[in-house]
Amino acid sequence: MGKNKSKALFYIMPVVLLGTVIFIQLCTLIKLPEKRELNNVTLASFPEEKSLKAFMDGSFQKQLDSWLGDHFYGHTNAVMVHNQVDYSIFKDASGNVAQGKEGYLYIKDQTPLYVSGKKTNDNTWDDYLSYAGKLKNLQDILNANNKDFVLLLTPIKAEIYPDKLPWYFKLLNKKYSDKENAIHDTFVRALKECGVNYYDVTDDLKKMRDEVDFEVFSKTGQHWTLTAAAYEMNSIFDRFEDMSEFTKYPRVDVVDVNDGIFAIDKDLLDMQNVFWYKEADRYTKPVVKYTKSDDSIYIFGTSYIHEIWHSLYGVDETGKDLAFNSITAQQYFVSVTDVSEKGANTTFFSEGEDPYDLGITRRLKNSSLLLMEQCGAFGVTDHIAGINTRFVDYLTGVFDGEDYSLTGNMLRDKSYTGDFELTNFDGPEELGRWSLGDELGFTMHDSLCQSDSEKILLCIDAHSFSQDRDAQIWLNDTLIDTVKVKCDSTESFSFELPTDLLKDRDNVVAIRLSGHSVSPKELGEGDDERSLGLFVENMEIISSGER
């Protein structure tokens, strides 16, 4: 009897296993819905190429295998079970997060930059000197343009809370710690040697940690808390005032704190795809009063700048006051937040966007201070630090040159429209845009810089459709020029915008065409029914003058 049972199991088990596999595959192929979805996980796509060639060279099978691996029925639960075991038993978070003592979380690919000391310092001393020299050169150029430059060095979380690190990071720190040759400290030595205006808040935050009853860095996030940043502002501005010639600094007084949570560090664990996790701690949110500055500030840096500009706006009793006349906060090349008494307006774009299209020059020209924030532990050639280098190189080029764009080509396809608004333009085409009808133009919402030593020019590359046309250029309802635009060739035009006609905001440029626009269909040249005016390949505002 026992042998018969064993024999039966010998046949039944493979059938059950095969049936289970087939069932899972069928559920996968017919795409039965799952109750959950993974957060911040990009799953492989189903093979797009289904040709015989793709099957024969194996590319179809390879893509299909990746797709099945990410989409098999129950995949989400399987991933979450795996992550839950790591989190609950092995005290490790999934993805790029490490679990330390008392619920503290750390970003894995940042933390070794501190705990491994000189071992992770891939930069040579010449690299540091070269970068610091670029900063000093930019500082001198901005000073020559009556602007201040200061570099704010911020620490990463592991530098403020090393005692809460996971045990394996502590072992690395014990083995490789070498303060003198660590990234952060080598960076500081280079800044001092080159004479760069900088302030490092690391020691301040270490001292603050030991003296206050609020978190300096959020336990479950990677940023300094809003309360810590607000309390630190006066120390920063006291030091900046010693280095500045052209900027009057405000003072930021924390008059109260409320229970709250800063959205940018709400909880890293809610992205970790587990079933059960510890909720994020709540953090105090400061109530602030300002002694206001009439100057304007431009902030460029990492995501740490959110705590800076939030400390200068939007956390006071009214929710509308701000410490500077205006604030521009640019997180690398992915977002710009313009802050005024009317509120905060954020626009987004891709990291690879052309800096000429991001309005950097115009915003900075209207500010007296460039505050550039950088994490000291990132070094000078790390990917993140490399974006700072790109920013410095860009500004050095445009401010050291004779002419530079204030707007970039306004005709490009953009996901943001806060800077300007086009009038009577169709969508972007390969080389530019067609205007529709007999009038075109734009409204520039932000201020254009004005001074006695520079000219503001409107530059346009365009040709007309089907006939030569006269074009009148109007600025704020005043005619400033008239030109002839040909239909058989693209020409470049440049118009000076008289500074006495420019307003602080919302300058309107209109281009009015002689004759009447017609469509290709009316001329028997196809089915296009649009009444076409000018085809404009480039349109931007340029600053020109000696500085």
List the helices and strands and how they pair.
Elements lengths: L1 H28 L22 H5 L2 H13 L3 H14 L8 E3 L5 E3 L4 H4 L9 H20 L3 E7 L2 H4 L6 H10 L6 H12 L3 E3 L1 H10 L14 H18 L7 E10 L22 E9 L4 E6 L3 H8 L13 E6 L3 E6 L2 E6 L11 H6 L3 E7 L7 H18 L2 E3 L14 E4 L9 E4 L2 E6 L9 E11 L4 E7 L2 E8 L5 E6 L10 E7 L18 E14 L2
Parallel strand pairs: 3-4, 3-11, 7-8, 7-11
Antiparallel strand pairs: 1-2, 5-6, 8-9, 9-10, 12-21, 13-15, 14-21, 15-20, 16-19, 16-21, 17-18, 17-20
Helix pairs in contact: 6-9, 6-14, 11-12
Protein traits:
2 domains; Jelly Rolls; globular; 14 helices; single chain
Gist?
The chain has helices spanning 2-29, 52-56, 59-71, 75-88, 112-115, 125-144, 157-160, 167-176, 183-194, 202-211, 226-243, 305-312, 360-365, 383-400, and strands spanning 97-99, 105-107, 148-154, 198-200, 251-260, 283-291, 296-301, 326-331, 335-340, 343-348, 369-375, 403-405, 420-423, 433-436, 439-444, 454-464, 469-475, 478-485, 491-496, 507-513, 532-545.
